[in-house]
Task: inverse folding
């Protein structure tokens, strides 16, 4: 694992998360199955402006995250999200992609722009349609050779890292063996994730960060309209659909997905969704009398071996703590993306992390993992949880396929 070696480290004194919001995370091939990720992103962006009262015309830069390009107009996704959410035509927009760390990357790039004095206010959006991942061919531009017609499921094939010849699930199985994590351990962890998410739904904590989605038209003067069309039998989607009662005895009956401890029940849910947030300078907050949700304190991006990519959060969290002079005991809440149950348990054991502080409102096993949206969700969720609990510091982190880790540290503190 990366220790004190190379990393991308950022520390901020004047960067604030005003607020964030997301769509429900919806099981793939259901209500959002035919909706473009661009339109999910527009919906989330429009809502974050509505909730905060921030004018879209104040935006200085727009940063969008998206991993799998699942629309023919995907090249234009950042620009279209910006324009159709009311951001002025003069404001630039760009796309970032760091696989499962993409949402975090969008926040950190926004924070960097503010630190460098390039912007006072940034719109960040992460959006993903897992449903619309194509059945693809990459070798047929010049025609079809006899016996070599090949189309593959991009969503499935993208799970394989050919450098180490392991699927993402396979890397979790490797960690399970290294850390002596049993099937029972992983199923118990998953059952707790579902139970915590159910409790967070019932207490309305999760609904506090969700905008209900209905069929809707997005107008842009002088340009073509676009929008969201849900199935005829779906009027509105207002809750995460992957959250459900999942006791240990039910999870224990599921078959292994990768030949070991991981199953469909103790791995991250495959869902569609989007999240958006506003990141600002203290100057902007003061000028516009806005109370922020949290301060963005620092971030770290590291590399780890591809075959143990699931350990990425460990050095990322350690580096961000080293950078700020904090220790783990001072961190009140931790969100680690639940890509796979064994992977999170390995990180927990390596860090010596108190389970009572980890993913207290459930994680991606229960809620789902729409790749580019997850980092924004985790950052907003941990900030909201700090506010609710009256606690000070929180960290959100994720492992990244190919062998990386990313972490963002936030503080529940009033703007100066």
Result:
């Amino acid at each position: 694992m990366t220790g004190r070696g190379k990393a991308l480290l950022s520390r901020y004194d004047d960067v604030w998360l005003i607020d964030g919001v997301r769509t429900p995370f919806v099981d793939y091939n259901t209500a959002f199955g035919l909706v473009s990720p661009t339109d999910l992103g527009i919906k989330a962006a429009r809502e974050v402006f509505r909730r905060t009262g921030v004018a879209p015309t104040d935006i200085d830069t727009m940063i969008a995250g998206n991993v799998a390009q699942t629309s023919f107009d995907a090249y234009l996704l950042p620009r279209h999200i910006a324009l159709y959410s009311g951001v002025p035509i003069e404001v630039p927009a760009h796309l970032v992609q760091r696989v499962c760390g993409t949402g975090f990357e969008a926040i950190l790039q926004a924070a960097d722009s503010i630190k460098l004095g390039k912007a006072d206010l940034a719109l960040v959006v992460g959006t993903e349609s897992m449903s619309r991942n194509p059945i693809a061919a990459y070798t047929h531009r010049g025609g079809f050779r006899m016996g070599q017609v090949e189309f593959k499921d991009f969503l499935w094939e993208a799970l394989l890292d050919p450098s180490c010849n392991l699927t993402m699930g396979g890397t979790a199985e490797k960690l399970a063996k290294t850390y002596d994590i049993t099937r029972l351990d992983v199923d118990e962890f998953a059952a707790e994730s579902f139970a915590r998410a159910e409790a967070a739904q019932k207490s309305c904590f999760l609904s506090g960060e969700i905008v209900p989605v209905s069929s809707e038209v997005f107008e842009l003067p002088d340009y073509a309209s676009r929008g969201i069309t849900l199935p005829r039998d779906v009027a509105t989607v207002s809750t995460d659909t992957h959250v459900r009662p999942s006791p240990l005895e039910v999870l224990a009956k599921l078959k292994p997905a990768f030949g070991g401890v991981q199953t469909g029940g103790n791995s991250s849910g495959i869902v569609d969704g989007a999240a958006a947030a506003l990141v600002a300078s203290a100057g902007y907050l003061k000028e516009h009398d806005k109370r922020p949700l949290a301060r963005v304190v620092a971030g770290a991006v590291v590399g780890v071996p591809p075959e143990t990519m699931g350990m990425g959060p460990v050095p990322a969290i350690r580096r961000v703590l080293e950078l700020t002079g904090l220790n783990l005991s001072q961190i009140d809440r931790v969100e680690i993306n639940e890509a796979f149950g064994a992977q999170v348990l390995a990180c927990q054991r390596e860090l010596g992390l108190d389970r009572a502080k980890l993913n207290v409102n459930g994680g991606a096993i229960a809620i789902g993992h729409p790749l580019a949206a997850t980092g924004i969700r985790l950052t907003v969720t941990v900030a909201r949880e700090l506010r609710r609990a009256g606690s000070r510091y929180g960290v959100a982190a994720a492992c990244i396929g190919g062998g990386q880790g990313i972490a963002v540290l936030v503080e529940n503190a009033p703007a100066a």
Remarks:
- The chain is about 30% helix and 20% strand.
- Residues 183-202 form the longest helix (20 residues).
